TrEMBL record:
Protein name: LLM class flavin-dependent oxidoreductase
Sample GO molecular function, one term: alkanesulfonate monooxygenase activity
Pfam family, one: Bac_luciferase
Record-linked InterPro entries: Luciferase-like_dom, Luciferase-like_sf, SsuD_RutA_monooxygenase
Keyword Magnesium listed: no
All residue ranges annotated as the Luciferase-like domain in the record: 9-325
Top-level taxon of the source organism: Bacteria
PANTHER family: ALKANESULFONATE MONOOXYGENASE, ALKANESULFONATE MONOOXYGENASE-RELATED
Coiled-coil residue spans: none
Keywords: Flavoprotein, FMN, Monooxygenase, Oxidoreductase
Keyword Transferase: no
Length: 374
């Protein structure tokens, strides 16, 4: 591994669902409100983060914590945050089974204007049958068919962003002399979290970057390297990979582990069972890497993924730097228990350790130059 500096983008995965990303009654009970997410986005911008991303979720998992029973809609949330912020990227998520590409093409062009070109899009080809099925929008497609739909979806959207009129008669969508104005000033960054080889190939061919998760730290590295390998095989230059990390900081490693133990003591097993049941109902479960990771968390009865990076800022920084460099990541996206205090820790202390380990971020430059007001 080279000793040269490795530059990465730094993003935050916004807590648009109540309780954030930890399935527990003893973790910070974050509100699924626009006001809270606006505070988080403004703080991330102040700290020098590159982007803020929100998920799309239509149905929660109940239990004592009512995990994700309240969620903000992604694109309207990011539209508001586009107006509230001035520099940070604002990335929204859509399910390709839920929104017609012509509808999103128009919405994206408007958010592009509001954000002055800072809007990005995260595509989800699947999810689980209950989430979209409650609205009658789930299509019982197999794994490959879902990506066939997503490929047709993004092809139509890109044509609407670049052509005056579009005629299209495909398997999933039909457009006749379809007009979509205004156009975005530039093609927005587009990411996808597909983790199977089929998902990676869809992402590499149609998107600007891949959104990666790992079941543990070694799996993060393996997955990141596989994405870059497939990109090289199809001749895709400049393809980016963004790792998603749950981070639990403490003043010491012991204190950080005590936080995890406290959250696990209140793990919401009912919510996890509901999550497992919903994802297990997918007939393409064998190929659905993301679903299997959610099911694994439920089977292990943990409030968060075992891939979480836990420890002091020094420990977290060293671990993240090792994964980022070993997996050749282009970006680090973070989830934290408390999106105010913990995010400050990441954006000031952890980025300093990353820099000392040869992984540079805009956030470190912001902290180093004093642009962030403590």
């Amino acid at each position: 591994m080279s000793n040269a500096n490795h530059s990465v983008e730094l993003g935050v995965f916004l807590p648009v669902g109540n309780g954030g990303w930890i399935t527990s009654t003893t973790s910070p009970q974050l509100p699924a409100t626009y006001d809270y997410n606006r505070r988080v986005a403004l703080l991330a911008e102040e700290l020098g983060f590159d982007f803020a991303l929100s998920m799309a979720k239509w149905r929660g998992y109940g239990g004592p914590s009512r995990h994700w029973d309240f969620t903000l809609e992604s694109l309207t949330t990011m539209s508001g945050l586009a107006e509230a912020t001035s520099r940070i990227g604002v990335w929204g998520t859509i399910h390709t089974m839920v929104f017609h590409p012509a509808v999103v093409a128009k919405m994206a062009a408007v958010i592009d204007q509001i954000s002055n070109g800072r809007f990005g899009l995260n595509l989800v080809a699947g999810s689980n049958p209950a989430d979209q099925g409650q609205m009658g929008l789930w299509m019982d497609l197999d794994h490959d068919e879902r990506y066939a739909l997503a490929e047709e979806w993004i092809s139509v959207a890109k044509r609407l962003w670049t052509e005056d009129r579009v005629d299209h008669k495909g398997r999933f969508f039909t457009l006749e002399d379809c007009m979509s104005n205004p156009k975005p000033r530039t093609m927005p960054p587009i990411i996808c979290a597909g983790a199977s080889d089929r998902g990676f190939l869809f992402t590499i061919r149609n998107c600007t970057g891949s959104f990666l998760l790992g079941s543990d730290h070694d799996d993060f590295i393996k997955t990141g390297l596989r994405a870059k390998e497939l990109a090289r095989e199809v001749g895709r230059v400049g393809f980016k990979t963004y790792g998603l990390f749950t981070i639990v900081p403490g003043r010491t490693d012991k204190e950080a582990q005590e936080r995890v133990d406290h959250y696990n003591a209140g793990v919401d097993t009912i919510a996890l069972d509901n999550q497992t049941r919903e994802y297990s109902s997918d007939r393409s479960l064998k190929q659905n890497t993301m679903a299997n990771r959610f099911i694994q968390q439920g089977n292990e009865r943990n409030s968060m993924t075992k891939a979480a990076v836990v420890g002091s800022p020094e420990t977290i920084g060293r671990k993240l730097a090792h994964i980022a460099r070993s997996a050749d990541l282009d970006g680090i996206t973070v989830i934290v228990p408390d999106f105010i205090d913990d995010l400050r820790t990441v954006g000031t202390e952890v980025v300093e350790v990353l820099a000392a380990c040869g992984v540079t971020t805009k956030a470190f430059e912001t902290a180093r130059t004093g642009a962030y007001a403590h």
